[in-house]
Design a protein that fits this description.
Number of strands: 8
Strand order of the largest sheet: 1-2-6-5
Radius of gyration: 13 Å
Strand content: 35-45%
Shape: elongated
CATH architecture: Sandwich
Mean pLDDT: 95
Distance between the termini: 28 Å
Number of helices: 0
Length: 86
């Protein structure tokens, strides 16, 4: 299985409380396994507040809905041994 690397990294975002914010990371291969999103070292799951999706097989997206002050912090995207933070 080829080593999946991060092609385009996360970008820092500033949003207003109550808005949605989307982070995206592009990886080198489609159908990457061992992918994880974290906020302040807490793993995020796909639910009504966090939308985790993949577009075109390589663009991994995380949308945080109606952010609050508690959502301030570092977002981490990890694929295998590679990470990107914003």
């Amino acid at each position: 299985e080829p080593d999946v690397t991060i092609v385009s990294r996360l970008k820092d975002m500033e949003v207003f409380e109550g808005d949605d914010v989307t982070f995206q990371c592009q990886v080198s291969h489609e159908n990457a396994r061992d992918v994880e999103w974290k906020l302040q070292d807490v793993a995020l799951q796909n639910n009504e507040m966090n939308e985790i999706s993949v577009e075109k097989g390589k663009i991994h997206k995380l949308t945080l809905r109606k952010v609050t002050e508690q959502d301030i912090g570092t977002i981490t995207f990890r694929v295998g041994p590679h990470t990107s933070r914003a």
